[in-house]
Amino acid sequence: MVDQQLRRNGITDQRVLDAMSSVPREEFVPAALREYAYVDRALSIEAGQTISQPLVVAAMTQALDLKPSDHALEVGAGSGYQAAVLAQLCRQVVTVEREPALAEHAAATLRRLGYDNVQVVAADGASGYPALAPYPAILVAAAARGVPPALIEQLAEGGRMAIPVEEPAGAENQELRLYRKLRGDTRWEVLFPVRFVPLVTD
Question: Which residue among 6, 18, 169, 185 sits deepest, i.e. has the most Cβ atoms within 10 Å of its Cβ?
Fold first, then answer.
């Protein structure tokens, strides 16, 4: 996967490549789909959600430019795979999941595999997790119609946030944006087009 899918498509951060190599993706997909675990495509999981394709996981992670001392917030835990990748690269990860069954399953998988620096919270992801804010890095694994204000507020000075955003034309038009907070102001750039499940909020 690393050589055939990631290096050839612009993933150059060796720490990200090492993290992607070390996380057993097959442990985060349904048993019936394990043979496809390392195919570069999104796979269905419980509650109508998906686990993102490896290249998108790697690209979003690389864009965050994580430091070992960082703590990161993920919105949309899903199966826990993205959180496991982040956990290889920073001090602590908080991942928020709206669907209680998914949150419970992700927490159990991460605990079983020894990712003890990940905290799974069952809550509305658009509200973030203010208890541990501000975050140097935020990754949103669902497409927002607009960037939730709470996430901007919880982004640390100098922090980065990778988030898929729906264009006004509808859910079929999404772009991955990288936000940076500098001197209290946020600026963003478009990384590439994506297709994520929608961010559902209360």
Answer: 6
